[in-house]
Amino acid sequence: MAVKDFAVNELKVSNLVAHCDFRNAASCKVMDKIGLTLVKDDGVRQYPKTSEIARELMYSFII
User: Which residues, at least 6 apart from 58, have a Cβ–Cβ distance to it below 8 Å?
Assistant: First the structure.
């Protein structure tokens, strides 16, 4: 919550966007916990070192 609160209260941002690998359940849980909403679940990311491709999730918080 601290990062989100800082961004909203100190930086005065009106939109936060975060991405994570769909296999990373802990990251998804954190995003839910701080109040971000899943807005896209069909993204794709490629890891440069391994060329592995994985599904990417996008979360957002809009004031």
Answer: 17, 18, 19, 38, 39, 40, 41, 43
CA geometry: angle at 63 spanning 57 and 56, to 5°?
Answer: 5
Which pLDDT belongs to residue 17?
93
Structure tokens given for 35: 């109040």
Answer yes or no: pTM beyond 0.85.
no
Contacts of 27 (CB under 8 A, 6+ apart): 20, 21
42: how many CB neighbours lie within 10 A of its CB?
A: 9
User: How far apart are alpha carbons 55 and 44 in whole angstroms?
Assistant: 5
Q: On the CB side of 36, how many CA atoms lie within 13 Å of its CA?
A: 25
